[in-house]
Specification:
Elements lengths: L1 H9 L32 H8 L6 E2 L9 H7 L4 E2 L4 H7 L2 H10 L7 E2 L14 E5 L9 E2 L10 E5 L4 E10 L2 E12 L11 E6 L9 H19 L3 E10 L2 E8 L6 H8 L3 H10 L15 E8 L4 E2 L3 H4 L5 E2 L7 E2 L4 E9 L2 H19 L3 E2 L10
Parallel strand pairs: 1-2
Antiparallel strand pairs: 3-6, 4-5, 4-6, 7-8, 7-10, 8-9, 9-12, 10-11, 12-16, 13-15, 13-17, 14-16
Helix pairs in contact: 2-3, 3-4
Length: about 375
Amino acid sequence: MRAAAASALRAGFAPWTVDAFRDLDCVWPGKRAPFDAEGRFDAWLAWWKARRIGASAVVYGSGFEDEPRVVQFLSQGRSLWGNPPEVLREVRSPVTLLGGLARRGYRVPRVFEPRADDVVPPAGVAWIEKPVRSGGGNRVRRWTSGSAISDGCYLEEFIDGTPGSIVFAASKGGAVALGISRQLTGDPAFGASGYRYCGSVLSHPAGLFEQGVSVASTAHAMAQTLAGDYALVGLNGLDFVASRGVAYPLEVNPRWSASMELVERAHGISMFQLHALACSRGELPVDRARLCMRRAVGKAIVFARWGVMVRHARQVLGGLDVADLPRSRTWIRPGEPICTVFAEADDANTCYRRLVEQAAVIYQRARQWMPLTALMPRMHA
């Protein structure tokens, strides 16, 4: 909510934010309602905290796309600026989404959903296992033939390529592309592993992917198709894998997503304003070829490599282009996010290197914080 609320403020709105992290830079005096989720996301807790806020409209962020009933409750007595529950149920179904795009003539990865009978996945296909209620690449792994499929998961064909995402505004069956980015996943430079999302680099598609212009063209066409087929509204994102000039769709993020603040940084526009106009008035921005930007802007989430107790984050991390600053006396365990770093450059590769350099500085300065092991009682054999 930090980036969305900041964008709303720039557009002249007076937003309330409901979040579970209490970051230092997501505090708007008198306009914030934090809650304790005990280290996990819980959409129902967020709704419970938000139910008595006297706002005229509601915008939801990450995690709510898989909770259509919560979205229904959130919007009672308010205008919903975002995709309604019935749309979420359709676009968040991998079978519905990818099957629909395949019928439209797009190349898509195959999907296998486990059933009660003894049907097994087709042999000779490289599969990855993904949770139906997915988020940030967590719990995504390569699937070994013959092993059981975890509860609440399905199999998706593994496409060897570069992960990416396109951001677009949608309304009345139309869509305008706002930016395309290469996703950073599982990068050890930022303390991530596996398929975990850890950042994005926004730039001209030619500098992001092999045959990038072709990839961007395919992704833009899919965004137009999805906007028409599912009546999407507001800001949305489509994740894909770029392989040999083709964008293979993976999933739709039908809400504010991580790379949107990069579009805002690159073009000096309020993404929240675009979202509000698309949802409340059905207005889309003029297509000004924002996909063809020449510079690169990037962000990376820096995950802890060791556990620490945060102290004086503003002083310790001062002078860096960072966001999502943790409060003092916050316990950060290994694998949990420390903060977000940003960088800009003339090209995508240089921008990425600057993000890596920023992350290295974060790790160096984080050594000033007390390690969690020093706070733990000594264990005896």
